[in-house]
Structures are given as C-alpha cells and as structure tokens.
Amino acid sequence: MFLLGKLVKYFSRQLSCKSKVASEERSAELDGFPRLTHWLRIVNIRQEITQEMAPGQVTLEGLLHLDEGQVWGVLQKFGANEEEVARLNASLACLRIDQQTVQLGHSDACWELGSGGGLC
C-alpha cells in the first residue's frame, strides 16, 4: 500500500507540473508524460491491452476526466476484463483525490485517508 501511495504521488506531481506549462509551450517530451503505459503496468493491466492502444489514443489525463462507466467502456474496447477495469478505476480514484488535495494546497490528505483503510 505504501508503494502505491508513492507512485500515485509521483504521477500526480507529473500531472501537476505538466498543467503549469501552457500546452503551446510544452515540448514533445513533456507532452508524453505521465505515460499511460507505465500507469497501466503499475495497475497490472495486461500488456496485450496496452499494446492495442495507439499512442495518444487514450491518455491518463483523459481517463481522469471520465467516470467509472466511461472508463469501463474505453477499456472494454481493448479487451480488459472486469477485474482489470476495477483496479484501474480504484487507482484513478486515488489519483483524482491526490490531484484535488494538491490543488487545494494540502500535501498528504490522501495518504491519511489510506492509513485508515481507504482506497488510497
């Protein structure tokens, strides 16, 4: 659980830094972060599913803006099973919480929730 918390924080930091740079000023390298393939590997989504996705077709930022049902629809197109989608939705929920706490100026609210048995 501790490692997952660190990884969520790491990806959240990447998203936060990226959002501070205007899209027209971003380099191609910055635009490619955080990498969805890395997130899917962390969440243990089968590699076959990741390989089915064309680069840029699905992004981590895009998934964060979808509700659970929409995430299910996207991943189902690529052959994900119910368990994989549930893991992805749970991890996205943690990432959303961390993003909200960063925006509000709090640092570790998600991990305080997690220590009490929450998702994060």
Task: Please describe the topology of this protein.
Layout lengths: L1 H18 L8 H4 L4 H7 L4 H6 L7 H5 L3 H10 L4 H22 L5 H7 L5
Helix pairs in contact: 1-7, 6-7
Question: Which properties best describe this structure?
Answer:
single chain; mainly alpha; 120 residues; 0% strand; disordered C terminus
Would you kindly provide a written description of the structure presented here, covering whatever features stand out?
It is a single chain. The protein is mainly α and 120 residues long. The protein has eight helices and no strands. α1 (2-19) packs across α7 and α6 packs across α7. The radius of gyration is 14 Å and the shape is globular. 19% of the residues are buried. The model is unreliable at 109-120 (pLDDT under 50).
Distance between the amino and carboxyl termini: 8 Å
Shape: globular
Low-confidence stretches: 109-120
Helix-strand category: mainly alpha
Q: Total number of β-strand segments?
A: 0
Average pLDDT taken over every residue: 81
Radius of gyration: 14 Å
Order of helices and strands: HHHHHHHH
Number of helices: 8
Write a short abstract of this structure.
This protein is mainly α and 120 residues long. It is 66% helix and 0% strand.
